[in-house]
Automatic annotation (TrEMBL):
<dbReference type="GO" id="GO:0050459">
    <property type="term" value="F:ethanolamine-phosphate phospho-lyase activity"/>
</dbReference>
<feature type="region of interest" description="Disordered">
    <location>
        <begin position="469"/>
        <end position="490"/>
    </location>
</feature>
<dbReference type="GO" id="GO:0008483">
    <property type="term" value="F:transaminase activity"/>
</dbReference>
<protein>
    <recommendedName>
        <fullName>Ethanolamine-phosphate phospho-lyase</fullName>
        <ecNumber>4.2.3.2</ecNumber>
    </recommendedName>
</protein>
<feature type="compositionally biased region" description="Low complexity">
    <location>
        <begin position="471"/>
        <end position="483"/>
    </location>
</feature>
<keyword id="KW-0663">Pyridoxal phosphate</keyword>
<dbReference type="InterPro" id="IPR015422">
    <property type="entry name" value="PyrdxlP-dep_Trfase_small"/>
</dbReference>
<dbReference type="Pfam" id="PF00202">
    <property type="entry name" value="Aminotran_3"/>
</dbReference>
<dbReference type="GO" id="GO:0005739">
    <property type="term" value="C:mitochondrion"/>
</dbReference>
<comment type="subunit">
    <text>Homotetramer.</text>
</comment>
<keyword id="KW-0456">Lyase</keyword>
<comment type="function">
    <text>Catalyzes the pyridoxal-phosphate-dependent breakdown of phosphoethanolamine, converting it to ammonia, inorganic phosphate and acetaldehyde.</text>
</comment>
<dbReference type="InterPro" id="IPR015424">
    <property type="entry name" value="PyrdxlP-dep_Trfase"/>
</dbReference>
<dbReference type="GO" id="GO:0030170">
    <property type="term" value="F:pyridoxal phosphate binding"/>
</dbReference>
<dbReference type="InterPro" id="IPR015421">
    <property type="entry name" value="PyrdxlP-dep_Trfase_major"/>
</dbReference>
<dbReference type="InterPro" id="IPR005814">
    <property type="entry name" value="Aminotrans_3"/>
</dbReference>
<dbReference type="InterPro" id="IPR049704">
    <property type="entry name" value="Aminotrans_3_PPA_site"/>
</dbReference>
Length: 490
């Protein structure tokens, strides 16, 4: 059905003329035009098929017929706002709640991840009566003003002077290139103690903490998997001073991690956030999102006396779509698929790491996987230009992958959840060839790379022990020159 109205160059020209220049395209030097998509595949105006390893929004697969049909049917019947009683709203809330710990029982439906996080901050401020927010370094939580303030990924680009005095940045609990690494005896406690110290310093200046906010796994921050127990310890420190814990599941929720429906559950059954925000995959591309919290927090929000109204949030069409997404995840066992294919993908990548000095670390859970490219295995120097080169070359071979993290050197897999073993074989096979080429050009071979065990002070407790249940490994390597440095965040 989808057809081209303009030829590609005309689309580019019109975009330049009418669309804000800060709205970037993927592959800036040679953008692609996509006119239709199905499952994990996207198709260009020339009907070329691309394997999509980028779109975690098309969670159950692009244009899933059941999701499309649920939306169309409800749109034909009624779409209106939540001030009218409608069963879709309560039915969907009930279904979503069933995926969460009992305590998280009250939903607010909104339209985007940013709206969800902004509302989460309002809930925290109202509930605690405090103002300050602790966020993680390299975090991204959304594009509205309140969230740029708590998103170092963004505000660092504006210069440090832009940081609000009510925002405190804790180190990212990154055990590969963070402050405390896999050789630390207890990185969970060490990183949580950093949060405790921030709280103490803030208190000394008369500030009070309203909330700690973190993605359950940092995505833009470089596919970071926090050590198990970190969230419990942080929650303890934050709740001790009257604050709340906000888990941002906008990227990583809805079964992506395979072993659990929510990524915060990777921390253990003894951890329950006070507020959870959801977005992207929730509507498989339909703009909708949700904040779920405890009855207690919701009552505090109510006590302000102000109504919360959202014109589109929780409308019958969005709720129908949200329910269809949950149905498909269940019917097609997509969480199970994420677990199985994710494990297979990690195995392939680990084999690749044995062969390629450019790979410093592979880490992931389910279909949330990162490949950290390094120029030097010992120093873990980010191979930024090489990562950009890899994603451009992959794109030329019809595989869509992105690179992110503070150094833009982490290849990110976050494909639709119907991603198959064959897709993993194809993508990893192509990466293998590209890395071989790059390393040949750079004069690198695996023997240049020191073995981890020979690194002084390196303990044998691997990431596996620290972030149990995940596969992750680290190595490091020698020098490369940068071929190109295509400055694009994808
Ligand atoms: C972790 C996280 N939170 C929130 C957002 C904001 O979501 P949206 O773009 O739907 O407003 C994003 C978007 O990339 C995100 O990655």
């Amino acid at each position: 059905m989808a057809t081209e109205v303009f030829d590609k160059q005309k689309t580019i020209d019109l975009r330049k003329k009418y669309i804000g220049p800060s709205c970037k395209v993927f592959f800036n030097h040679d953008p692609i035009k996509i006119i239709r998509a199905r499952g994990q595949y996207m198709y260009s105006e020339k009907d070329e098929q691309y394997l999509d390893c980028i779109n975690n929004v098309a969670h159950v697969g692009h244009s899933h017929p059941e999701v499309v049909s649920a939306g169309t049917k409800q749109m034909e019947l009624l779409n209106t706002n939540s001030r009218f009683l409608h069963d879709n709203l309560v039915h969907y809330a009930q279904r979503l709640q069933a995926t969460l710990p009992e305590k998280l029982s009250v939903c607010y439906f909104v339209n985007s991840g940013s709206e969800a996080n902004d509302l989460a901050l309002r809930l925290a401020w109202q509930h605690t009566g405090h103002k300050d927010i602790i966020t993680l370094d390299n975090a991204y939580h959304g594009h509205v003003s309140s969230l740029i303030d708590i998103s170092p990924y963004k505000f660092h680009q504006l210069g440090q002077t832009e940081q609000s005095q009510h925002v405190h940045v804790a180190p990212s609990p990154d055990i590969y290139r963070g402050k405390f690494r896999e050789d630390h005896p207890d990185p969970a406690t060490a990183y949580a103690d950093e949060v405790r110290d921030i709280i103490e310093k803030a208190h000394a200046k008369g500030h009070k903490i309203a909330a700690f906010i973190a993605e359950s796994l940092q995505s833009c921050g470089g596919q970071v998997i926090p050590p198990v127990g970190y969230f419990q310890k942080v929650a303890h420190h934050v709740r001790n001073v009257g604050g709340v814990f906000i888990a941002d599941e906008v990227q990583v929720g809805f079964g992506r991690v395979g072993s659990h429906f929510w990524a915060f559950q990777l921390q253990g059954d003894d951890f329950v956030p006070d507020i959870v925000t959801m977005g992207k995959p929730i509507g498989n591309g339909h703009p909708m999102s949700c904040v779920v919290t405890t009855r207690e927090v919701a009552e505090s929000f109510m006590s302000s006396g102000m109504e919360y109204f959202n014109t589109f949030g929780g409308n019958p069409v969005s709720c129908a779509i949200g329910m269809a997404v949950l149905d498909v995840i269940e019917k097609e066992d997509l969480q199970g698929n994420a677990l199985r294919v994710g494990k297979y993908l990690m195995e392939l990548l680990e084999k690749l790491k044995e062969k390629h000095p450019l790979i410093g670390d592979t880490r992931g859970c389910g279909l949330f996987v990162g490949v950290d490219l390094v120029k030097d295995r010992l120093k873990r120097t980010p191979a930024t230009a090489e990562a950009q080169d890899v994603i451009y070359r992959l794109k030329d071979q019809k595989i869509l992958l992105s690179a992110d993290g503070p150094h833009r050197n982490v290849l990110k897999f976050k494909p639709p959840m119907c991603f198959s073993r064959e897709d993993a074989d194809l993508a990893v096979g192509k990466i293998d060839h590209i890395l071989t080429d790059l390393e040949k050009a750079l004069g690198l071979c695996i023997s240049d790379a020191p073995d981890l065990e020979s690194v002084p002070n390196k303990r044998k407790n691997s990431f596996k022990e620290i972030v149990h249940g995940f596969q992750s490994n680290s190595v490091s390597n020698s020098n490369t020159n940068t071929r190109t440095n295509k400055k694009q965040r994808t």
